[in-house]
Structures are given as C-alpha cells and as structure tokens.
UniProtKB/TrEMBL annotation:
Region of interest called Disordered, as start-end residue ranges on this chain: 74-101
Superkingdom of origin: Eukaryota
Biological processes, Gene Ontology terms: carbohydrate biosynthetic process; chondroitin sulfate proteoglycan biosynthetic process; dermatan sulfate proteoglycan biosynthetic process; proteoglycan biosynthetic process
Membrane topology: Single-pass type II membrane protein
EC number: 2.8.2.-
Family affiliation: Belongs to the sulfotransferase 2 family.
Provenance organism: Monodelphis domestica
Keyword Transmembrane helix: yes
Keywords: Carbohydrate metabolism, Glycoprotein, Golgi apparatus, Membrane, Signal-anchor, Transferase, Transmembrane, Transmembrane helix
Name by which UniProt lists this protein: Carbohydrate sulfotransferase
GO molecular function, one term: chondroitin 4-sulfotransferase activity
Entry's transmembrane regions: 7-26
Signal peptide: none
Record flagged with keyword Metal-binding: no
Length: 419
C-alpha cells in the first residue's frame, strides 16, 4: 500500500511538472505570461479533469487539484473579500521588484495582501450590494433561466465578457452601455496588454477606441481553452477564487434606451444591416430597403423604439441567435449566481464607485478613471420613451429583465407597469 502511495505521488509530481513545462512553453511562444495564479469563490463542486469514473483516478485528480492550488498560491484570500493582491513598485535604485514566494519568483510581482482604507459608508454599500446578490441567488422565489446551473455548466462562449489581468489579480466582467469602454481602457493599462511604439500605455484616454473593443486586445476566459486545453476550466476556477472580481451595472430599462440611442439613432452600418433591416421589414412592413445606413437615414427610414421593443419580445429573435451583448441581460453576461463578485459598481454612482474600486485595487496612484463623456440617459426619461409602448409590452419587457432589476437592487418601475 505504501509503495502504491509513493508511486501515485511520483505520478502526481511528474504530471504537474509536465503541465508547468507545457504552459510555460505555450506562454513563451504566445502573447501571455505565466497565467497560473488563479479560481472560484462560491463553493461549487471542484472542477475535475476528464476521468473514466474510477475512484482511484478521481483521487488522483483531486491530488493534482490540491497540489496545483498549493503550489501556485502562497496563501488563500482572507475572510474579507476586499483584501487584495496587488503589484508593488520596485525598491528605489533597483530595476527588480521584491520577490517573495514561488509566484513572485516566476512572475516577478509582489502578491502580498494589503489593507485598503475605505469610507465606512461606501464599505457598507458594497456589502449590501454583494449580500443582495447572494441572497437572491439563493432565494427560490426568484426564478430565471440559468440561475441554478454550476460554473462548469456555462458554455465557453458565454465567458467572453470576463477580462483577466494577471499582473494585478483582477477579473472584470464588462457590460456594454455601462462605461465599459473606459473600464476596458483601465484594464489595458493595468495588464499592459497593448503597446504604443513598444511601450505600454500609461494613460487610459490615450488608447484609441478601435483598439479598446478589439477582442484580441484582452485575455478573456473563453480564450483559455486554446491556451490550456483540458486544464482551462480548472485554472479559471483558481483565478476566480484568488482574484478580485468586479462588474458595473445600471438600471435595465435605462440601459435599453441607451443601447437603442447609440445603435439605431446614430449611423452604424453594422447594426443597420444586422438588426435594423430585419426590424424594419418585420415590424414596419418595409420590403425594399437601402443597403447603407446613410441612404436609409436620408430617406427617413429609421428603426423606432417600438420596433426595438417588439424585436426584444419576439420569440423568434432568440431562436435565431442570442441577444446582442448591448441588450443582453447582465445575468447572462456575467453569471452573478455562479461567480461571487467582490465589487458591484453602478453607473448611477460611477464617480464614487470608480474611485473606491481603484483604491481597493491599490492602483489609484497609478491611474485615474477617465473623466470623459458618459452617456447620461437618465431614469427620468423612461416615462417619455415608454409612453407609446403598450402596457402589455412593458409588462412583458419587465419579466424579460426582472432578474437584473432584482439582483442588482433596482426598484420595479411600477409607474410603467400599471394603467
């Protein structure tokens, strides 16, 4: 029995060594660094490598999981989810940062935890937002699709909104129409994932918009399979456990108005061809339409807000393809019942939340959240925008986005849902 245990231990050690060699090789020939410091936060069943179902092989996988977790992290996070692992500047006169444990020796970064001074009211507000998420995710009275699935059940293509910064241990789930352009800029600066004449960008506002939304610029979870193969889901879980996870949200109906304004009231050829043309044909009875958005606008052919709402409520829409990310529900983009977020920001309190988050991440001295123009579509506009939308449609639309209202603490718009 002792010989069998020693043999299994050597197999585990040999397997882990080979995994590390393979990953280091992949990262050296690719654009990434050593992305092994990573996991989950909510107690779901641990991700397992494919097995034949035998007890001994399951024990072997468990050994590998445990060994990887211990090997790649010096210590787990403390009970306080806001204690962060952040990069420390090098000592004066030295070009190298202080090295402490294996992760720092491999990566060259200091991942020691730090206490962040916070405004007590903001700290309390964050606790309330996180607790609300957890409570409603556990509450059986709130029912919505995908609520009860595990992280392992989420298809890989649905993880494309989770951007990873391994340099600072951060995961950001971006939600379109919620200041995501500038948060993506911040993530680019922090991760140094984009260079300008060989030098990483230092100022978020220097980054051209076309590069910000280029998918090749960001390391996202859905890219892990290509890099790590069958170990990708396990590494995601390690990162979700160790890293700081945040997202920003806004009132669901206001977000819809903002999406409509930016994609259908402004000339956008892509959205005209993909969405406006079908909407105009289906809901406005147009049979012959111009091929370009500029021609359509010149002819007065624009999608109405009513057309847009009909499109969202039409059961044929989701049968053809999932909602576009600009109007897809946040719970489908960021999976808040499968991922235990450390920070929940809101567009309505963006300035305060952004300052607090950068301080918590210990990067507030390195950069500031860009003070650029923000779409100020206001909640007070809802009644005007929905005035011509039939009551039955408004009620159906609320049911479609109810989970986002409830999970993130937005009040039910009673004035829009009653005669």
């Amino acid at each position: 029995m002792t010989k069998m245990r020693l043999l299994r231990l050597w197999i585990v050690l040999g397997s882990v060594f080979m995994i590390l060699l393979i990953i280091v090789y992949w990262d050296n020939v690719g654009t990434a660094h050593f992305y092994l410091h990573t996991s989950f936060s909510r107690p779901h069943p641990p991700g397992a490598l494919p097995t034949t179902g035998k007890d001994e092989e399951r024990e072997f996988v468990s050994d590998v999981d445990e060994f990887l977790d211990k090997l790649l992290s010096s210590s787990g996070r403390q009970n306080d989810p806001l204690r962060k692992k952040t990069e420390q500047p090098p000592l004066p006169g030295s070009s190298k940062p202080i090295l402490g444990n294996m992760e720092e020796n491999v990566r060259g970064y200091d991942w020691s935890t730090h206490d962040a001074k916070q405004n007590p009211d903001q700290e309390k507000l964050q606790a309330e937002r996180r607790n609300m998420l957890r409570e409603f995710c556990a509450n059986s009275s709130l029912v919505f699709p995908t609520k009860n699935r595990s992280f392992d059940d989420i298809p890989n293509y649905e993880l494309n909104h989770l951007i990873v910064d391994d340099r600072h241990g951060i995961i950001y789930c971006y939600v379109p129409k919620v200041a995501c352009t500038n948060w993506k800029r911040v993530m680019i600066v922090l991760s140094e994932s984009l260079l300008d004449q060989g030098i990483p960008y230092k100022d978020p506002l220097d980054i051209p918009r076309e590069h910000v939304h280029n998918t090749s610029t960001h390391l996202t979870f859905n890219k892990f399979w290509r890099r790590y193969g069958k170990f990708s889901r396990h590494l995601m879980k390690i990162k979700l456990k160790k890293y700081t996870k945040f997202l920003f949200v806004r009132d669901p109906f206001v977000r819809l108005i903002s999406a409509f304004r930016s994609k259908f009231e402004l000339e956008n050829d892509e959205f005209y061809r993909r969405f406006a043309v079908p909407m105009l044909k289906l809901y406005s009875n147009h049979t012959s339409l111009p091929t370009s958005v500029s021609e359509a606008f010149s002819a007065g052919l624009k999608v109405s807000f009513s057309d847009f709402i009909q499109y969202l409520l039409d059961p044929r829409t989701e049968k053809l393809a999932p909602f576009n990310e600009h109007w897809r529900q946040v719970y489908r983009l960021c999976h808040p019942c499968q991922i235990d977020y450390d920070f929940v920001g809101k567009l309505e309190t963006l300035d305060e939340d952004a300052a607090q988050l950068l301080q918590l991440l210990k990067v507030d001295k390195q950069l500031h959240f860009p003070p650029s123009y923000r779409n100020r579509t206001a909640s007070s506009w809802e009644e005007d925008w929905f005035a011509k939308i039939p009551l039955a449609w408004r009620q159906q639309l609320y049911k479609l986005y109810e989970a986002d209202f409830v999970l993130f603490g937005y009040p039910k718009p009673e004035n829009l849902l009653k005669d």
